[in-house]
Amino acid sequence: MTDVTENNEKNGSDQFTNAKSYLLQVSTKTGLSLYEHLAAVLSRILDERPKDVVDTFEDLSRDQKKAKFTSEVDTVQDKIDKSTEVALAEIQEKLFSKGEGEDAEEIPEEDVETPLPNLMELCYYFEQAGVGLNREEMVRIWLALKNLVDNHPLQHVRFWGKIFGTEQNYIIAEVEYREGEDEEEEEEEAEETHEEDTTEKDNDDDEDEENEEDDIPKPDYKPPPVVPKEENRTGANKKTYFICNDPGKPWVKLPSVTPAQISLARKVKKFFTGRLDAPVVCYPPFPGNEANYLRAQIARVSAGTHISPLGFYQFDEEEEEEEEGGGRDTFVENLEFEGIPVRELVDPSLSNWVHHVQHILPQGRCQWWNPVQKNEDDFEDEEEDEEREEPDEPEPEEGPPLLTPLSEDNEVDSMPPWTPKISSKLVPQYAISVMHSNLWPGAHAFATEKKFENVYIGWGHKYASDNYSPPPVPAIQEEFSSGPEITETEDPTPEEEAALRAAQQEAAEAAEEMEEGEEEEDEDD
Amino acid sequence: MDCQDLRLTIEYVGSSGIILSSEQKAALETSLTILKNNHKFDKTYFWGKILGVKDDYFIAQGVGKNEFEDRKILYSKNLVNWGLLPPATPEMKEKAKLAKGRFTGDPSFEFEHTEIKKIGEGEEQTEEEETVTIKEEERLAAVIAEIDYDVRIIPRGAFVKTAKGSPSVHQPQIFMFPGYVVSGLSISEAAKLCSYMHFREATKMHEQTLLEKADMNPSIDFMDPLDKDIPKGSWSLQFERGSAQVTLRSLSWQGYVFFHVPGTRRYGSIYVGSGEKNMDLPFML
Questions:
Q1: In chain B, helix, strand, coil percent, each to 5?
Q2: Number of domains forming the structure of chain B
Q3: Which residues of A touch B190 (CB under 8 A)?
Q4: What is the pLDDT of residues B39-62, one digit of tens each?
Q5: Complex ipTM, two decimals?
Q6: Where do the record's region annotations for Disordered lie (chain A) (predicted)?
Q7: Given B66, B84, B102, which residue is the final one in a domain?
Q8: Is the Cβ–Cβ distance between A365 and A227 less than 8 Å?
Q9: Going by C-beta distance under 8 Å and a sequence separation of 6 or more, which residues neighbour residue B57?
């Protein structure tokens, strides 16, 4: 019993100290504590003894506070930092102002075709489908796209979509330059290759020096030839992509994608951070930083999910006949396209939708490139190569041709690759048809009458019902088969050495004797 | 998110690609009002959407007096007729983990999972196949419970624990620290993960060090803060429009989005996703 009461007492005193220390806390604004204030008020009441104190207590308390002089002016100068909100608003304010010198009301020339899409109309349709972004954000993106169009010679611009990152998000614009106006890019590339050349030369010098010192055996392994990347305007590099983190911030052009990056992007699954220069830490190592990974994923998403109603595009018959075999890679808009009824578009057979972006082959290119022919060109001067067996002509990889209907798409883990939907079941006569991709969650398309559009809003990862597991490390190399020619002989023991020496000595003596004998014989002759 | 101002709050998650069409918003406003009345809920929340291959499930939650315990989950496919989901039992949760693949959109669909069991030892070992069937409706209930347990979050101080009964949680306006709560989190607080708490019974309280416990306010800090989550980095915290809004996206349940407007009481969360946990998270960070 005594213990309990003691405990209670202890708790009581603890609570009392806690309460008192709380009351003694000094306000950061006035420098007063409630404890002091109450003490002052109560002592004043006891001194003055006014009538009905409880009614006038608030006034007394206020009087007491007023009596104490506190300066209004803080000694620390007020300097409010610009919040990030204000900073961003200032950046975005430029989007809403017209360019300099355009203040005078200018009537836009109606004849000039602008590559800028009517984003708000598309946003309206996507909203019916229950996908897309805020209208306000869309307006900002639209204005940012307008900015892009004004500053670059572009022929075609599209809002590609938004990819979420862990720190920032990417807003992606898909553009096509006007014919012959993407020179900057070529120059950049030329510089890059030049740099590579110089580094290679340096390496050669090093090797020469080493050779003088010691003859290092060279491995006869040749790495498989690097698959060359596709030219701009073809295959996976058909379109150029610009990204920005927030509308209003500068647009950054993404580098063109190489087949190696695409095939590696298929093997890894990483979150984007939102910084283009961030390294992609993964196994197997990714060739490039996040900008390259982003570009590779964009290429994969585009190839997998950009779809249009059947008949909207058609092959250009005149041109195509001249071309040799291989997939056709250009198409033109079908001016006679009449639109497909919504009911047919949402048919689960999916045969009324076609892919209008080329399939990317396992090689990482859209057009298959034969690695063997290059082998011959490169190593002609090396005689050894000719002796070796010529590798068999590899089977060309083939993908579905352009404008293949979605009905040909593979199933995604035994579920249909696309989910067709109708935007409204209540008013179907005015509804639009919507497609949701199940392979790339976040990819959507809508179509109504003669309009269609694709958009991607998601994390940039392909769907898989199984867990991701990184590719295993390569198998351990086999050891060189051990045979007599590489086996080290055992050292002889001292006894063996002694025995050998004795034997040698005996033999030598015998030989001497023989010689002597012979000499004698000679003399005899 | 709260249904009362759904049309306002849904705008805040629009930047995460979560949009309701006007038809859906109108239907929700009508049907949830009726729902609240019929079930005598104190509050109804629009919980989100689970995407199925053929059809989607819209999920709403109705709450009685106690935010923790009086919680009923309802689902609808057309946003008009709502059906009550059975409460998720631990057994259902175990079974739901075995189901692989996306939801189909048919509540009576049955997922099958075959497990090969080995019976006996040595040469007498025989393999026996055991099939577990999981009804989609049950899986739905289990997944929603899992998501609520794993990622449902609130800003610190949005709920306070009162002296009346230990686990009961009440709206704070009437109770202690109204000033603190009404003004929401400040911008610098909103940037820290420790300012957000899991809306569930605390499970990691005993892991706190003494030093941390000393600074805790028992009326507010009665739930687990987010910075203790494993693995680190399973949340993506971003400010939008400068610092006008803070958005938290869960990386382990992709599709869960939480927003809070610093300096106000406005906060909410929604889940729009396939209802599959991101098991690859450790590889992706």
A1: 30, 30, 40
A2: 2
A3: none
A4: 888 888 999 999 988 888 999 998
A5: 0.86
A6: 178-234, 376-413, 470-525
A7: B84
A8: yes
A9: B49, B50, B75, B76, B77, B103, B105, B140
